[in-house]
UniProtKB/TrEMBL annotation:
Subcellular localization: Cytoplasm
Function: Regulates the GDP/GTP exchange reaction of most RAB proteins by inhibiting the dissociation of GDP from them, and the subsequent binding of GTP.
Source organism, top-level taxon: Eukaryota
Keyword Cytoplasm: yes
Protein known as: Rab GDP dissociation inhibitor
Organism in which the protein naturally occurs: Dinothrombium tinctorium
Molecular function via GO: GTPase activator activity; Rab GDP-dissociation inhibitor activity
The keyword Ubl conjugation is assigned to this record: no
Alphabetic keyword roster: Cytoplasm, GTPase activation
InterPro entries hit by this protein: FAD/NAD-bd_sf, GDP_dissociation_inhibitor, RabGDI
Major localization class: cytoplasm
Signal peptide: none
Amino acid sequence: MDEEYDCIVLGTGLKECILSGLLSVSGKKVLHIDRNKYYGGESASITPLEDLFTKFGFQSTTLEDYGRSRDWNVDLIPKFLMANGQLVKLLVHTGVTRYLEFKSVEGSYVYKGGKIFKVPADEKEALASSLMGIFEKRRFRSFLLFVQDFKADDPKTWKNGIDPKRTTAAQLYETFGLDKDTADFTGHALALYRDDDYLGQPCLDLIQRIQLYSESLARYGKSPYLYPLYGLGELPQGFARLSAIYGGTYMLDKPVDEIIMENGRVVGVRSGNEIARCKQVYCDPSYVPDRVKKVGQVIRCICLLNHPIPNTKDALSCQIIIPQKQVGRKSDIYVSLVSYTHQVAAKGWFIASVSTTVETSNPQTEIKPGIDLLGPIMHKFVSVSDVYKPTDSGTESQIFISESFDATTHFETTCLDVLDIFRRGTGENFDFSKVKHDLGDEDN
């Protein structure tokens, strides 16, 4: 370990593993250390099933009902990938797809008035949807056609006097005469905003988010989401392999005793009597508690089911978004479902997860609307996690810290954080052209 590196990455959470891969690909000499024996950090996949029960403080003596224990791979922080989103682009461009196999998620639903409805994502579905009345359907179809034809660099496509940099999202909805419920599911279930702050912002971001949703949907048809076989724990390991191919060094089960500073800048990391020198450190918040601030909490409830979620046409996987206004909240509630078809549960079993940003002193009651959709639950595991953000950009100290995972059930915010950290650390945006394209078949 007594060597000099360009970068030391601490923790093997997904964000840290992606960074390790990208830095290695960019020609940096990388050392990657984790105090844990396993990959994934707080976003690990837990196997066998006994380990999940033990982790949450339950006796794991009577698990015969749950099938073979080794067939379970349970994500602690479940999320889906947008088929045309940032993470898939990173996976394809870096060749990490050669280590992974994906399955498309069967359905995307939104909650309205106590019921769930399939999210209409194109004009045909909009006209067939029971989510809206007949006249609203036509208005929504016109809105979708406008979004579909819109090009930011072609003012001819900016119809109805809409200027994407000046017209707000709320004004865009008004222009098409959309009612509040339609605006609600559009902003939260299509554009995937977590609250309503976006309504006062220029509408370009809203339009691009809906375009991403429909481009992702067009790739596989059932929903815009993908999920890796054997769980999300495969993702950090895939990027770790990428880093290793480009010369990165990995050390698991290695305590980190000190981050060594000189004149306010990082110069190395100490583990016991060993010191590895470096110019930069990239890490998750748990390694630098004095350099992060708590900005909130997320509650997650993992539920083991022996049936699909009711009213989803027996979907073997799906996402349900409960927009905050539907249940009198400030932030959305997210429900995700995966199952034995993804090699993450024993035959006939399902794993549902309900998550949201904590707003009260009683987080468990906050996820009740999501829990109520699931039907009978065989076992549930509840956790409340603090959410941390770095207190500075890291450019002075050269310590670059990721943010904790949010409550969303997709990876778009995760990738934005990773690419932002990479830009701060290297002074440039990640250049996909630096990646050798002989790492595997990109269309895997």
